[in-house]
Design a protein that fits this description.
By secondary structure, the protein is an alpha+beta fold. It has one domain (7-56). Helix content is 41%, strand content 14%. The protein is built from two helices and two strands. It has helices spanning 23-33, 39-54; strands at residues 7-10, 16-20. It has a two-stranded antiparallel sheet with strand order 1-2. A hairpin with a 5-residue loop joins strand 1 and strand 2 (16-20). The radius of gyration is 20 Å and the shape is elongated.
Length: 66
Amino acid sequence: MITLHKKIIVNEKGKPTEVIIPLKEYREIEELLGLDLDKKAIQDLKQAKKDREKGKREAYVNLDSI
């Protein structure tokens, strides 16, 4: 679980308008959401999902072989 150390910015009426979080925590969120992946990695993951849904076991590598 991520703990966010956030600062909430409010306008002159006290309404929250922005949130500031430390860059390290932002990077963790990016990684968790997969926002740090390049196009090839995203394409590979989409193909892996299709293979899994179709039951294409031959598309996978046995973990013991790695």
